[in-house]
Amino acid sequence: MLRYLLIRTVQTIIAVLAVATLIFLGLQMTGDPMENLAPQDMSEAQVEELRKAYGLDKPIHVQYVRFMEKLLEGNLGISFLSGEPALKLILERFPTTLNLVLVSMLIAVFFGLPMGVAAAIRADSWVDRTLRFLSVLGISAPTFWIGVMLILIFAVNLGWLPSSGLSSWKHYIMPAFTLSLYRIALFLRMVRSTMLDVLNQDFIRTARAKGLMERVVVYKHALRNALIPFITVAGLQFGALMAGAVVTEKIFAIPGMNRLALDALYSDDRPVIIAFIIVTAVLFAVVNLVVDLLYALIDPRVRYA
Amino acid sequence: MKRYWILAAFLLSLAFAAGDKLVIAYQGGAVTLDPHMRNETTTLSWQHHIFETPFFYNPQGKVVPVLAESIKNVDPNTWIMKIRKGVKFHDGSTMTAADVAFSIMRAATHPKSQMKAYVGKVSNVKIIDDYTVEIDTKVPDPLLPAHLDHAAIIPKAYFDKVGEEGFGKHPIGTGPYKFVEWLNADHLTLVRFEDYWGQKPDFKNVVLKNIPQGATRVAGLLSGEIDIAEKVLPQDFARVERSGRATVKQTPGVRVIYVAMDYWRKYGSEGLPAGAENPFLNPEARKAVYMAINEEAIVKKIMGGAATVAPQFLAKVHEGYSPNIHRFPYDPKAARKILEDLGYGDKDGDGWLELPTKDGKRVPFELRIDAPNDRYLNDAQIAQAIASMLRDIGIKASVNAVPKKVFFPNMTKGHFTLYMAGWGSMDSINTMFSMFHSKDPEGLYGRFNREHYHNPKVDALIEKAAQTFDPGQRNDLLVQAMDIAMPVDVAYVPLHYENVIAGVAKGVDFTPRPDEYLHAFEAKKK
To answer: Is the pLDDT of residue B13 over 60?
Structure first.
């Protein structure tokens, strides 16, 4: 087990270095950062001075070597705009995004999983058909539209909920629902189809033949088997939300790291862009590891020795 | 009876407590609280609450002394500035010449200072006595007082003690508000500075917020969470007014939206058919484009009234605004006739005007209009409207609207034939040098004159104005230059000034500034 963890850690470090290299080179292709960094009214000589102060005057390979050296020390550079360490800016906002995503994922699992099971055990009943219809709506409604509609209804017309920020539990309701709607629908459909698959297998028939209670058959035998693909998808969705809740963070003015990264992208604040992508890469690696470990917990056949 | 009094007093105190707080929603947020490191409107707007500068523009566009008392220049490169007495920093220390000298030099020389476009000409600041400094410049700068609007004064002793990083974490200035707490680019909480030297602002507690989405800012305004919302979009005007909770305030801004044309390449201009002659070298052809554009309609239909028709490049609050310049009338028939008379008429009878090519053929007058689609209010739609107006006079125009990140680098490289962009600066000398002076090999002049507009008379007038210390004379010279560049040479086609727009809650009295800065201390209780 320890050996397994060690191998995974080394793999993650290699992946992060590869990602960092790709991003560094990719950003070079997006043009001259001074176009966006330097104020329009500076003279060319003044822009060059500024370029030098940011260390962008050196040849690319020199910049790259310096960047990698610092990266190995865990230093992701100083934000061009704010003068603060890029990693600190990202980590300052990491908990905000994490909280929002955790709440959204909880809601999504809480509703999506039971609804999926319910739809599967009553396949083709009116319950199943209604849920399937609603799930299509949930999957196709754009996040942007849901967010704005929620604000219009609950903040402007009814005045029940605050429209922006994330400072109390009330602030969480609208953005968390906006983010979870798609996931509820996704989990519902996913659990339904895997459950149907499992429920048709031989060991379920055997379990039923043994005279087990239907509840035990469904939840202990069938669901446990259906959970493996579900956990994979849920893990990926968690990662995707952490790095992709940008529209929701923007609409609800939530100070999360996605919005920071978007602003950094617009203003070519490269250290912040790189820090964001590295944090996300590490996060994905950790989530994948946790998912793999969960497999072992749920399915006793899986061993990491 | 007594109980009612207590209740009444309690309710009254609640009302006052609520009325003492002002929340402003901006479209962006300050990225740093170090006042010399980022020259960008929202960042400076937030910083202006904490820091002040020796001089600043008032809402009418006049430069007025703030931390300075007076200034006079003894010779072209030397100024003597008297400093206001009795000004306190937020830590209780008194502002003196040492703080002023230190701050101006930091803005002028720090490697990462973004204020060099303003104070980069300063070579030295000498302390004469506690309340007098001598400012030396490398080259004469008649606009130095105005340029000091970007030199925020910070306390030297405190800065030396806490260092650059510590200062950014807890900034101290002389402004009407003190720093309480902030999250970079998200929000800034402030409290009124009770020892402020000037008129104390009405609101004791202020929160400046970054709410990037227009719909969310309006929602906050209507639900009462926000008192002033910046940049309310025209489609939301009616909703705000109908709500009865807030109203929309507009001021014509200093940002002009304009159309520029390539006047330096006879052949090979990228927006025209390959090999076709570029008609815009001729001012008459530029005038035809001008006359084909129905700007009144653009302001009304596309801008929803959130803009003001621009008769010229500079705005009324600017130095050099000419009373002699008026718009050419909108007259598509006359516009087409001008182009026909220049030899671009429709010979093959397909309805489109034609351009001669290098090898003596004629091709349809196709034209690509370039514009950004995420920089100015309704930018892509304006470009579309211009395209359809040009099609009406027989130019086969199409629009290439792209994100600003793609647009501006291409504009700098001169890849366009006819494009739409905007320009906003309080400093007319800077505007004239950047946009109207011909390009010089050293890149000092005409840096944004990518179309290579060139008129020696205009160049001479701008250079002379830039050396003139007398404001009246300087204004006259700039007006003379503009009177040539706009109506005679048609250097640019001005479209409109973007209005500066704010949604203001009913209990607050506030009018937006033309320069787009938004300050809580300019808001009053009603």
So the answer is: no
The residue to which tokens 């009405």 are assigned: B202
Gap from B10 CA to chain A (nearest CA, Å): 24
pLDDT of residue B10: 47
* Residue pLDDT, tens place only, B178-224: 999 999 999 999 999 999 999 999 999 999 999 999 999 999 999 99
Distance CA(B171)–CA(B521), nearest Å, equals 18
Q: Does the beta carbon of A151 lie under 8 angstroms from any beta carbon of chain B?
A: yes
> Given a cut of 80, is residue B11 above it in pLDDT?
no
Whether B158 and B280 share a structural domain: no
pLDDT score for A38: 85
* Percentages (nearest 5) of helix, strand, coil residues in chain B: 35, 25, 40
Whether B165 maps to a domain, the answer reads yes
Ramachandran class of A175: left when φ > 0, alpha when ψ lies in -120 to 50, beta otherwise: alpha
Q: Which domain holds residue A14?
A: 2-86
Q: Compute the distance between CA of residue A95 and CA of residue A271 in angstroms, rounded to an integer.
A: 20
Asked if residues B314 and B429 have their Cβ atoms less than 8 Å apart, the reply is no
Q: Closest residue of A to B210, CA-based?
A: A253
B contacts of A151 (beta carbons < 8 Å):
215-216, 219
What residue numbers bound the domain in which B434 lies? 253-498
Q: How far is A159 from chain B (nearest CA, A)?
A: 6
B154 shares a domain with B88: yes
3-state secondary structure of B207: strand
Contact assignment for B111 to A52 by CB distance below 8 Å: yes
Q: Which of A40-49, A143-152, B125-134, B464-473 has the highest mean pLDDT?
A: B125-134
pLDDT at B16: 44
Residue among A36, A42, A51 with most chain B CBs within 10 A, to mutate: A42
Whether the CB of A52 is below 8 Å from some CB of chain B: the reply is yes
